[in-house]
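seq/struct pair 1
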Amino acid sequence: MKQSPAALRIALVASSLNRAGAEKQFVYLARALRTPEVDATVFYLSDGGFYEDVLRREQVPICKISYPGRPFKILFKLTKALWALKPHIVLAGQFCDICHAALAGRFHRTLTVGGIRSDGLWEVGTNGWRSGPMLHLPHALITNSLKARSNLTTLGLNPDRLFLLQNVIDLKDFDARNAEPHGVSIPQQRFIALAAGRLHPDKRFERFLKALALAHQKVPELFGVLAGKDDGAKAHLVGTAQELGLLPNHLLFAGECANLPALLARANLLLLSSDSEGVPNVVLEAMAARLPVITTPAGDAPHLVQHGKSGLVVDFNDIAGMAQAMVDLANSPGLRFAMGEAGRKRVESEYEFNSLKTRAVRLFQSIAEKRRNKPLLRAIRALAPDGIT
């Protein structure tokens, strides 16, 4: 790999390009940054995955470094590849990528940045004793949520190392896809309550099922759709649904949906039941699809969903509250329309993809100023007189 002539060179490191929210935001960032004056190269520490093909179609360069089960060889090869690129920034897409990205970047005395895609506490809890070194290896951490920044500050991290880059959605692509077939067999003349995400215990979809069963007693036409790839929780959820009498007539396990925007366009509301989130992509997409959202106060969900305006926020274990929210929305088309329109306008004004490059470069500029990183500052200022294009 030859050094790029671009003014600003960024190495984006990822070990997963599967179809999931964090990976989608990683791809958005790579797409936004990849311009003639910015060389954003993806260093992919694995093989395959839905978004690898997406990146190639978008002509984002990928350097694959895949040696399953051999982390030290991956680190050596990544370090060698970075030597050729000589990036100004090495950015780990997710917390799990920090070890490789930060160690390789620091070897070259390059500014290293780690990504936090949940609420901070989830990352720490999942990685145990390793989380301490991982939190301190990068020069800075980028969170996608206010909640994560607050949690990490509470854990003792210096706020000067924490920066916020919120999630976005590509509305042009989203709107084009929601007009296409969704591939899910949904009964006609039913009111569709949708929950979507990987079927993992953290998502707490049993809350959705219990609320659905309770609401169905008052709204017989209510029908639930649970869309997502099984990540260890499906068997338990199927058993719960059977106990509640939801199967087979009042609930569909739709599996992983290839076209979630189209499925959202067919639904009447979205319910998020999670314990922990960063900025949940599915909520942004539901708002983009003009759906009212019922959500727990997980991560930044209550910041996205303005209670009473674009949706309803209920306590984590308030099953009766979730059910009543479904009933209220099912019985009020006017309320659903008003909330859906408010959510769409919020996404258009604050979370549109087209603003991502400008916000990301300004964030890198802020980090460079905090770190007094003169080479990076020169590279950013070379993009345009004000530091951005």
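seq/struct pair 2
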Amino acid sequence: MIPIATPSEMKSIDEASTESIEILIQRAGSAIAWGARRLLNGTYGKRVIVLAGKGNNGADGRVAGNYLKKWGIKAIEYSPQDTPKELPSCDLVIDATFGTGIRGTYNAPITEAPVLAVDIPSGINGLTGEKMGSPFQACQTITFQALKPGHLLPPGSDYTGELLVADIGLDVSSLATFQVESTDIVRWLPSRASNAHKWNSACWVIGGSPGMSGALSLTSQAAQRAGAGYVRISSPGGYADGSLESVSYPLPEKEWEKCLSGDIHRFKTGILGPGLGQSISNADGVRNVLSIAQIPLVLDGDAISAVGQDHHLLRSRKEETILTPHDREFEYLFGSKPGSRRIEEVCKAAELTDSIILLKGPVTIIASPDGRCFIVSNGDSRLATAGTGDVLSGIIGGFLAQGTSGLEAAAMGAWIHAKAGQSFPKRGMVASDLINAIPEVLNATDMG
């Protein structure tokens, strides 16, 4: 996992360091200089422009420029006051004008040269990723010790280019927010015992309604592909249609939750809501299941609407609950859509509900009530199509059924879901395509 620090957290980490600020700047400047040298692919005849502001960010850039000069590279430095609107011809621009502590706006000068950003492209808010003017489009950003939210949250993520984290000797062990990497998935993947039985990892999926049976099918198939040994599917008041391998279990249209109480303890997890519909009887059923089911549960779609802002219902559960809202469903739960401080808001939501909250979007944010937060950023717009959320809830449920903790199951589900999407062309993918890609991703990841 790669640590993520807000600008204020990073400032506190800087101030707590036993190293002097001068030493830290020298280390940062050295890292930038070596990064610039790699991008230049040589030193002979190269010209670099260093845009250096007043703060530590500018100091890092000036140190980098001094290193480049020692290597025979012509480095020209501009302060913000004397920077021309159009830069002279050069081989590389080092953007060290403003860091994550920018105030006001910044409009980058015109250049055709590639740009190496120091810490974060000037003009990007380090906390929210918002544009504060017209930033450079960096080909690479070198940041120090930890990523910043603005690197990962759009539109900031569109301006950072390749992200590199340089170790300059700061202690970031106090941080609780991390970006998930493939190595984390390898560590978390559950193994199956040699004497495993299908009921060791059983999952019950309840959802579907007239015209929405596809959601139940997608979820059940995804749970099986993710490793659930037995998947039971139920649709209140109707026949549940899933995969060939799933087992359909009929439920009445009303008070259907009463049919679960004698059998649900046999299951390791349940998934509520995909395509369920928002009838009063379904809302009552979901709320009652939350009270009686002493197993981990994943709530998606209409189950989230059924809970609404009754947070006590979630806090009263002893077993883990994972909610997977998109922005509108987040509004159902907490009264407003997430704003620019998405990570902070999801963390507060997890604490408020004593549940794991997975906020879907261009960047997936997964927060635990214990304060930990995982960011999954390998997804893209291919997943912005109907049914992909049902696949995600199925993958998470499949991992939960195998005994994985809720936070890790949600993070793995989001990462594998996104990775599966990457295996298809940029255009033409539909949600059902993801199902058969899940085993390929799992096996490729497991093999390193």
